[in-house]
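Give me the fold.
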Amino acid sequence: RRPPRRPPWAITSWRRQSVSLSTTAETRRAWAGVTSRGKLPPIEADREQLESLVSNLLGNAREALGPAGRITVETSRTEGGVVLSVSDNGCGMTAAFMKESLFRPFHTTKKKGLGIGMFQSRLIVEAHRGSLQADSEPGRGTTFRVMLPLKATAK
């Protein structure tokens, strides 16, 4: 895995990618929208890696949905950083699965999954000195929160 390139990058690109993904036939019915809480500054981040992260989070949300499912994306600023949240009202995950399997490679509940998406997502976030949190409840849905600093710090 290559180290992240971290030129200043507008976090609003996440929102644009979210909107472009929402126009596919599969997700159009589920899309609830993108909300930004305040003006977001550029962050030092590897665009390709973060686009891969966003794509994975949105793909997982889409796959978790039932017929009346909804996906929402929210961005906000914190002291010294930014937050991206991807939420769905899909099937949710048990506490046991989240503790034992969620971020472990090759553990999946999907028929066609490899079990590397969330493992890779966590590696990307950690390479950017950020954190990735998940809140979920079976039958109610899941929210993933990606928290990233504005400036990269030396390793």
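Strands lie at 8-9, 31-37, 43-44, 71-78, 81-88, 131-137, 141-149.
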